[in-house]
Amino acid sequence: MTDTAHALGTSRTLWELVERRAALTPDRPVLLQDDRVLTFGELRERSEQVAAGLHALGVRPGTVVAWQLPTRIETALLSFALARIGAVQSPVIPFYRDREVGFALRASQAEFFAVPGEWRGFDHTAMAHRLGARGVFEAYGTLPDGDPAVLPPPPAEGTSVRWIYWTSGTTSDPKGVLHTDRSLIAGGSCLAHALRLSPDDVGSMAFPYAHIAGPDYTVMLLLYGFPAVMFEQFALPEALETYRRHGVTVAGGSTAFYSMFLAEQRARPGEKIIPTLRLLAGGGAPKPPELYHSVVREMGCQLTHGYGMTEVPMITMGDPDDTPENLATTEGRPPEGMEIRIVDGDVRLRGEAVCQGYLDPAQTAEAFDEDGFLITGDVGHLTDTGHLVLTGRIKDIIIRKGENISAKEIEDMLHRHPAVGDVAVIGLPDAARGERVCAVVEQPEGAPALTLPDLTAYLRAEGLSVHKLPEQLEIVDALPRNDTLRKVLKYKLRERFSPSGR
Fold it and tell me: pLDDT tens for residues 144-172?
């Protein structure tokens, strides 16, 4: 990390970080979208004007403001305006609907709710009123505006809870995760340091800004003084022209994004689809080793993958200068200040980037051990070089006849099979075995039909133990995924293929 970036990383609050960066490089761009450019100086100036407009609406330090907005420059301005006031903000993924949004509004006791109006064919304003939301206002093309002279001083400390993020809530109501300005700055600082970025880079945000990756990534821009392209709607190959036009050097998001870029590259052999691209980076879902090797070999760029979660936006990250073996098979190393403890295989964390807990005190009590380490629910181990290897989640361990089987081990092997585009391995209830191993496969276009004998013969040849071999194969057109980082929703597969769900 450069001396300047290191100094900026000591900022007490996000607003202090904005002010310090704007003073250093006011005319350099920070956000690019379509034909619009926002500089660091304009980010500070416009955010203060929006903060004044919000103040006129009644937003004060500590006021809870929920917002459900797409990845737009206006969204970033609103978020930093709230940070300027010292409000408590609760970002909600724009794809969520009545159940999740209603829960978030009630649990956070939001006093205001910013929505985009009608967006992508859905009327968010109507939903907000249907849910009885308070202080509903639209913040898409226009934002509240006012004279910054009316504003109180910005917050002086960054250790108070001012952020409520929501876990995906795939099997139950989402959890409200409590963050501070300092925990978000710590996460972004760790990411920036690990990726070895410079002011000459151009990044990209192809994920929802309301995701925990939003501030994580924006902190990185503020620390190093480089811009990122924002995608309100991301799709390939349509987005490639924008990547090329802005000379993007760093892209990614998650494993699903790597796969999408790789598929486009394979459709254009001999042509680098983004000539300026030097690095794909991300996290949020397991990365098969073969995907790393394919990206490096076929796209001609580096791939660094990391490990993060809503509760801890950045835990470990691959170093672009690390060995191919470590980049392919590990999640990288933790930065300074992040403690990792392995207890009977369970990964536990302690450090400044770790959240303060959950809205529900009972959930907080269950999530932390007696030494203050967050219990992640992920299973893994540390290598002799300090790299973290994840082998699955506690809930993703299949117990067959009393033996623990890692779904990830089988998935990594199957990703190397030419007739497998993507795969999820799940455990299904079985009266005789407790659970049986089921592989759910998404095949690439034109691939020959895959059978269970084909699949088990391949895994045997790869050296998989016999007791781990799948006993069931299901072929699907597309694996179910969430709308944030495109994670596979295994609970939907279990519901679909369990005996009671068929």
Answer: 999 999 999 999 999 999 999 998 644 45
In a domain, 61, yes or no: yes
Contact 252, 284 (CB under 8 A): no
Asked if residue 201 belongs to a domain, the reply is: no
Output the pLDDT for position 168: 63
CB 80 within 8 A of CB 15: yes
Residue 41 structural domain: 3-28+35-180
Written as six digits, the tokens of 432 are 């005789």
149 and 243, same domain (yes or no): no
Take residue 465 and report the two structure tokens written for it.
């133990």
Per-residue DSSP letters for 93-125?
-TT--HHHHHHHHHHHT-SEEEE-SEETTEEHH
Same domain? For 328 and 467 the reply is no
Phi then psi dihedrals of residue 11, to 5 deg: -55, 140
Q: Counting Cβ atoms within 10 Å, is residue 332 exposed (0-12), middle (13-18) or buried (19+)?
A: buried
Which tokens go with 43?
A: 């980010």
Helix (H/G/I), strand (E/B), else coil: 406: strand
- Shortest CA distance to 221 belongs to which of 33, 366, 30? 30
Closest CA to 207 of 150, 266, 284: 284
> In this model, does residue 324 exceed pLDDT 90?
yes
Helix (H) or strand (E) holding 21, with range, is: helix 14-24
Q: What is the CATH number of the domain that holds 453?
A: 3.30.300.30
385 assigned to some structural domain:
no
Number of domains in the chain: 3
What is the pLDDT of the chain when averaged over all its residues?
Answer: 93
Does 134 lie in the same domain as 56? yes
Q: Select from 313, 339, 365 the last residue of a domain.
A: 339
Above 90 in pLDDT, residue 1? no
Of 252-261, 268-277, 437-446, give the lowest mean pLDDT range. Answer: 252-261
Q: What is the pLDDT of residue 94?
A: 92
**124, 116 contact by CB (below 8 A):** yes
Spell 256-278 as b/e; 16+ CB within 10 A means b.
Answer: bbbbbbbebbeeeeeeebbebbe
330, 244: one domain: yes
- Sequence letter at residue 65: V
| Domain end call among 339, 371, 391 | 339
Q: Quick one: which of 190, 212, 218, 230 has its CA closest to 73? A: 230
Residue 388 within any structural domain of the chain: no
17 CB-near residues (< 8 Å, 6+ apart):
8, 11, 185, 219, 222, 223
